[in-house]
Amino acid sequence: MIDLYYWPTPNGHKITLFLEESGVNYHIHPIDISAGDQFKASFLQISPNNRMPAIVDSSPADGGKPVSVFESGAILLYLADKTGLFLPDDLRGRKTTLEWLFWQVGGLGPMAGQNHHFGVYAPERIPYAVDRYVKETNRLYGVLDRRLADLPFIAGSSYTIADMAIYPWIVPWKRQQQVLSEFPNLERWFEAIRQRPATVRAYAKGEPYASRPAVTEEGKKILFGQTSARPIGT
């Protein structure tokens, strides 16, 4: 059993994509990030960076006590190693998959996240910031489109954790002020993954939480106003 601490964000969706594809038994613990659930002491024991997703594996491979894992890329790698799924065994295939996994966690995710922040959540529009991150997102879409010119999936012929990491960050392409049809190879890949039964199931798991009210001004303070000297509630 995997306990998944989750909210329906791109990073949260990565993990339900894996769990639905693999058939691993799991239970969702919702972490409402606009209400401050990520700052509760019990969650910080699992995810000290106060970010979801995180997991607790009650049946780790070494047979020892439960294992907690935070950071979405680390979780995907842990689950792939645990199950033997969606990560090639050969040196070159594993290397390529991990390159693109880290490309997402170090590039596409942060850049698209700033795109979302300055385009949707910022209290005032800053044209330079919006332009900067929209253009960088566009550049990264181009990288993916070229990568997929002759490949069905990011790492090659097989669906891997690299695809699972990247797909949820392409889902909000309209919010990112992109035109998916301008990237035909990326669009073809996107549609193929969108139609996978496990993808449909994974996104359905998030629907009860995605229908919550929009983030309030107080919620924005919780999401964006924390520093090391200003913990939650102060």
From TrEMBL:
Entry-linked PROSITE patterns: GST_CTER (PS50405), GST_NTER (PS50404)
Family annotation (InterPro entries): Glutathione-S-Trfase_C-like (IPR010987), Glutathione-S-Trfase_C_sf (IPR036282), Glutathione_S-Trfase (IPR040079), Glutathione_S-Trfase_N (IPR004045), Thioredoxin-like_sf (IPR036249)
Occurrences of domain GST N-terminal (ranges): 1-87
Signal peptide residue numbers: none
Domain spans labelled GST C-terminal: 90-212
Gene3D superfamilies: 1.20.1050.10, Glutaredoxin
PANTHER family in the record: DISULFIDE-BOND OXIDOREDUCTASE YFCG, GLUTATHIONE S-TRANSFERASE-RELATED
Protein name per Swiss-Prot or TrEMBL: GST-like protein
Originating species: Roseiarcus fermentans
